Each structure stands twice: as structure tokens, then as C-alpha cells.
Amino acid sequence: FKGADTCEYLLSSGRFLGEKVWQPHSCMMHKYKNSEAKNCLIDKHVVFIGDSRIRQLFYSFIKLINPQVKEEGIKHGNIPFEDKSASIKVDFLWYPEVNGSMRQRIKSWTEGSVAKPHIIVVGAATWSIKIHNGSNEALAQYKINITSIAPLLEKLAISSDVYWVLQDPVYEDMLSESRKMITNEKIDAYNEAAVRILNSSSRNSKAKVKLFSVSKLIAQETIMKSADGLHLPESSRDTNAMILMNVYCNKIMKPIDGSCCQPQPPLTLIQKIAFCFFTLSIIGYFIISLIHRNNYRKNKSCTDLESGEEKKPAISAPNVSTLEMLLQCFCKLGLIMTYFYLCDRANLFMKENKFYTHSSFFIPIVYILVLGVFYTENTKETKVLNREQTDEWKGWMQLVILIYHISGASTFLPVYMHIRVLVAAYLFQTGYGHFSYFWLKGDFGVYRVCQVLFRLNFLVVVLCIVMDRPYQFYYFVPLVTVWFMIIYATLAVWPQIVQKKANGNCLWHFGLLLKLICLLTCIYFLSYSQDSFEKIFSFWPLSRCFELNGNVYEWWFRWKLDRYVVFHGMLFAFIYLALQKRQMISEGKGDPLFSNRVSSVLLFISIVSFLTYSIWASSCKNKTECNELHPSVSVVQILAFILIRNIPGYVRSVYSSFFAWFGKISLELFICQYHIWLAADTKGILVLIPGYPMFNVVVSTFIFVCVAHEISQITNDLAQIVVPKDNSTLLKRLLCIAGFFSGLHFFSAMQDQSRH
Prior knowledge:
One of its GO terms (molecular function) is N-acetylneuraminate 9-O-acetyltransferase activity. β4 (79-83) and β5 (88-94) form a beta hairpin. The protein folds into three domains: 6-253, SGNH hydrolase (Rossmann fold, 3-Layer(aba) Sandwich); 349-354 and 367-379 and 386-723, no CATH class; 725-755. α6 packs parallel to α7 and α14 runs parallel beside α16 (476-492). The protein is α/β, with parallel strands linked by helices. It has 29 helices and 13 strands.
């Protein structure tokens, strides 16, 4: 790895993913929309100087600003373009040879108070080869001419971006008779001369002409699709134009998925404070560990000098104090967060764009399913959705979602729709699990609420601080947090109806159903009243949590997409627990859930429903229309899966320990993938080992899973310390947490003020 100059890599190296997607070496290229291109180039003047190949690049470039432009200009003349709405001027100047005329035009920009173009793109050679029949004298004259132009270009490069486009290879078999003298051997000689002469006199790095050599690599792969053997096909020149846009605009627009040419973001005030905190934690932990270890050694080797016999030590093992455990957790967390920062904020590791192929998604799916089936064990209990089964369900869903993200399968609509069901199934389990707990236990205490909120949000809060991202960026955690609070409020509000109370009087069941109907009504109203929803979450301090890019639209969209499924989970839990209480289902080992006849009918209906949903999802043509139907129909496949998994006694009695292991750390896996498995905030892929894609995935996955598992352990340990069972101690901790968030808000406000 030669350093962090991703601009150099973008201009000089890369490869094709598939046929049309260009992947620069070590960094990610953003696909600019027309509005973004205009915002970047506002009040800018861009000039293209050269022959017909440069004219092609000129047209591809201006189509990024205005796609309606047609290639109708004079072939052998200057072509102006202006976008008055953004005050953008782009000119093509016809200078097919590097000669005195080109030199005079370039010199005019270096003299006096003449306005210099902000971007200058120059390139020419094939006309010189053609006109002079590929003679050596023409090459010698080209060297002389480019030597005279080079100092002028270097002078312009101090204040402007100057690019010299090296000549692309030709497809000699397709060239017309009048162009047969343009050979790749001649082109290489001209390119070699340009590379050797340009920047040879410049010692100032700011005064360097940038060599646009990546076009050669693109042409080598695509020139055989050329219409005449000389000019690149449209898709290739569009790629060149997009590279040019990335080189200039990434440092201005700072797109998340455009890591090429982006400088490392400066540390924020909050990040600096976090760094100091973790550093002090690491130092403090090592100091306390050394003190305890020395005390333990002294007590262990106490020898009676008179008898010569060794006495038993006063302390048999070093006691781990609460402070030491706290510092140990923060020490490990500090090291892990350093890795997070290095992976996705520092320009240390490479990043690449995703590229979807069916094989990159379905082959890993088959592989993990085989592994999951191989690790089949008997469950400890055979109830519907028992702990092992729900862990297994979370585990295989999480692994499928991870493969979906790294393979870029969101571009394939049938896969996208099925993944939406998996996300809905997580929320279904949220409704089912929390309702079951409150209904059976009747525990509405503060301790329970704080434990759940801490376990859900701890990692995300730390990442918001370290990675400088808003809370809503990790959308799934705000989603499950809000739904937990909605479930809690629904059941805790007067009258509190729990199973113990309902067993005494059946009317309480109707009271609970009435609560659920009220909840459904509220959900329905908010889902069709975007203004009301946004008003609720635009109030401070909720706005600080749920705003993304200055508004709460993203939060509304995420909430609306799975708005009914938590309610479905609560309703399913209520019906299932009622049937279980009345012994209307059989949950013995090996027994079908219902009578043989009823079980067979339900199993058949479930399989048909499951397949029907998959057929509908696979036939989706429009993502927006399918997303509108998804909240109402996703429950069909979820319920079908639950019945298929639980009706047969044998299937209910076994589970995959492989999937269950991943299920126990599913939340950590989902969040950690943002920065240490994927890259650029999930837009790309982290590259630890360049040049070996499969080996890179194996290594990065191993580290990623280990980190997620370790963070899960840290979260559990800290939950015991930060959220104690004693109410008076818990109240003090809550006051400390409130103080922490107040301080965080204060520093965040200072940070925002300094940015503006």
C-alpha cells in the first residue's frame, strides 16, 4: 500500500466489476446526479482542449450536468456549453495537434488578469500520427511542442486543476485505411513522451499536471466494442467523465460513497474528548491491574522465617472490584473503537464499491444453510418460539441480511422484498417477546425498562460519539427502542392488565383487546398523517435523536415501512398464550401442535401462503408500490414460517446451535457491520487485503464477528454495573446518565456552532 493518495489511484488504476461498473483501486467512486454535478460546478469554467476523443469526453461530461444535450456541434470546431441556472460554462476547443496554436491558447490564460478556467482537460496525438503517417520526425516535433507547453500547464496547475489525458489504445483491425498508421506502438511512444516531459521541471506538488491515464485501462477492456476502432463506446467515455467528476467534486461535495480524493475528516470536539476518555481508561486499568497483581503476589509468598514453612495466603485470588471491571470494559471498548475509527474514518484501509451478481448472494446463502443444518441439536424445551428457536431465527436472518448487504443485493427487487420480511420478523419478535414478558411477569418496574434500553442503545450511543454520526443513522435501534416504549406504555398505562389478573375475570381479556385496538388506531392515523408524525418527532429533544440530514423524513419512512408488524407480534403472543393457558395446544416433545387433522390442514395452508408471498415478492416490478403493500402482507410469510417451524413435533424439538450462536449477538452484528465489515457507512466494502477478494472477506469477517461477540460481552458486563437492581442506586446512576447526555448535548451544540 503506497499511501493515502486515492486521487492518484482514481486517475491511474482500477478494474471492471462485470461489464460496465468501474472500480478504482483502493477507493469508492460516487455516481453523480445532475443536481449534485451542478452544485459542485456552480460558477465554474471548464475547458476541454484537443481532438475528437477529447470532444467525446466533453459531451459525456456536460451530459452529467444536462442529460438532454445532443451531440450536434461542429465536428472540427469549438463548441460552447452554458448552464445559466448554475452559472456553469464548459467549452470544447478544437486543437487536434500539440502545436504552436495550442500553446498560444494556453499561454493566454497565464498572462495578465485574464480569467483562468477552473478545470482544464487537454489531450492530443492521433492527428499528428495520422497527418504525418506515423513518422519519427512527427514524434520528435511532438516532444519539442509538449516541452514548450509543459511549463505553461504547470503554471496554470497552481490555481487550476489541469489534466493531461493520455492516448487510449486503438482496435487496429477495425481502423479504416486512412487511419491504419495509428498503431498502439505509436500511441505508446507518444504517451511515454508526455509522461516523461510533463512535471519534469516542477518541484512544487501543487503545480503538477495530473495525468489522466485510467482511460487507457478502460479502453483496453472496451475498445473492441468501438464503432470505428478509434473512438471509445459511449459507456466507456461516460465512465471517464464520471471519474473526472469524482476527482474534482468529491473534496467539495464529500459524498459518503465517494471515498476517492476525499481528505480524512478532522476530529470533532466530542471525538477528541472520547479519545481522551478511552486513553485514561486504558492507563487506569493497567495501573489498577498492576497494583492488584503485586498485592496478590506478596500475599501468596508469605513465608514463616522461623519454621521455614509457607503460610497460606490471606487472599486466595485477586478480587475484581467494580472499578476495575468498569475500566477493563472501557479499555477493551477503547481498543475496539480505535479499530472502528481506523476502518471507516481514517484513510488507512481501502474501500471498494459493491457489485451484485446472483452467485455472490445465493452461493453464500446455500453455504451457511448447510452449516446451520449440520449443527442441529435437541432443544431444552419444546414450546412454540422457545429461546433456542428464537435465537436460531434471529441468527439465520442476521446472516442472510449480512450477505445481502455485502453483495449489494438491494438492486435485485425480489431479494429486497424478502429481506424486508426478515427485518419485519425482527420487529415481530420485539412485539412478541416484550408483550409475553409483561403479560406473564407483570413487571413494569424502572429496572426492567432501563436494562432493555441500555442493552439496545449502548453500542449505538458510543458509535454516534466515535464515528460522528446521528442516532437515526443506525435506524434499526431507534426503531426497536421506540416500539419497546410503545409496548411498555400500552400495557403499563391504567388499567394494567396482566395474565394473573385476567385469569380471575375473562372481561380483562376484552379490556386488553380494547387497548390493542386503540394502539392499532393510533398507528393507522400516524401512518397516513405524515405532518402529524413529523410534528411529534420535530420537537426538541426528540428532534436531536430522529433527525437525519435536517429532517425526520427518513425516520417516518422507516417507521411506516413496518408499522403493523409489532402489533401483529403482540396479538400473536396474546392468542398463543391464551391457547396455551387453556391447554388447546400440545407442546410435548415430538407431538404435533394440534390434532393430526388440524395440523395437516394448517401446515398445508402455511406452505401455500409462504410460497404465494414469495411468488408475489419475486414478481414485484416497482419498489415503491411493493413497499406500500409490504406493511399489510409481510405478516403472512412470518406467520406461515412460525407454523411450519412449530406444528410438526420433531421440527419444534430441534434447533441449529450454529444459527443460535449468531442470534445471541445479532444486534451487535447488525450495528458493527456499518463500519468494520462494510465501509463508508455501509455504502462500500472494507478491504484489509487488496487483490484477494475471497481471502479479504474471510479475514474481515473473522475480525468482525469476534468484535461483535466481544462488544456483546462488554454490554452485558456494563449493564450490571450501570443499571443496578437497587432503586436508590439506580436513581443515582440515572442522574449521572442524564448529566452525561446534557454534557453531550452541550458539546454537540458547540460543535455545530463551530461548523457553521
